[in-house]
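Thread: Newbie trying to understand structure tokens

Hi all, I'm a second-year student working on a class project, and my supervisor (Dr. K.) asked me to get a predicted structure for one chain before our next meeting. I've only ever worked with sequences, so writing a 3D structure as a token string is new to me. If someone could post the tokens and maybe explain what I'm looking at, I'd be very grateful. Here's the chain:
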Amino acid sequence: MKTQASSDQELIHAYLSGESSSLEKLIRRHQNRVFAYIIMVVKEKSLADDIFQDTFIKVINTLKSGTYKEEGKFLQWVMRIAHNLIIDHFRKSKRLPVIDVRDNDFDIFNTIRYTDDSVEKRMIIEQIHADLKKMIEFLPPEQKEVLKMRHYDELSFKEIAEQTSVSINTALGRMRYALINLRKLAAQHDIILAG
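---
Reply by user tm_fold:
Sure, no problem. This is what the structure looks like when written as tokens:
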């Protein structure tokens, strides 16, 4: 009876202390919700089975490695893993292009398209925007400023030059370097910035 009342944290501690049955109880407790979410998004049972299995393999590996951050939100953490695995699957299955760092004319913003309103497409686009926003924060301040003014404020290079008190060529150069640096960051972190 005690195991039914055990919290997720207690079961995790028991599992890490060598009681492998605790993990089974933890998985059984949440499997229906996790699987229901996966199948709702991917709409294919065999694929959902694979992603479900991969989700819990990742859970087990993270618990065993000691990198699980105990915040009392085990189910939300598992759902986030499942969500990320679904996004990874859709990206790979669509054979999306990987960024070629040698392509100097590449513009990340030209790769973001809003053509398909499907659930998986929206999830991918949301993830791309989240990844992109994180990467922009790593740019040098002057590159970040020009990039945001150009793509978020939709200013012309002439307006950017005037507002930042630099020449148009300097504004263009900063934009070019911002895109090159984003491309390098994406390649370093295996981020696919295409929907």
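A couple of things are worth pointing out once you decode it. The mean pLDDT is 78. The domain at 2-93 is CATH 1.10.1740.10 (Rna Polymerase Sigma Factor; Chain: A). Feel free to ask follow-ups in this thread.
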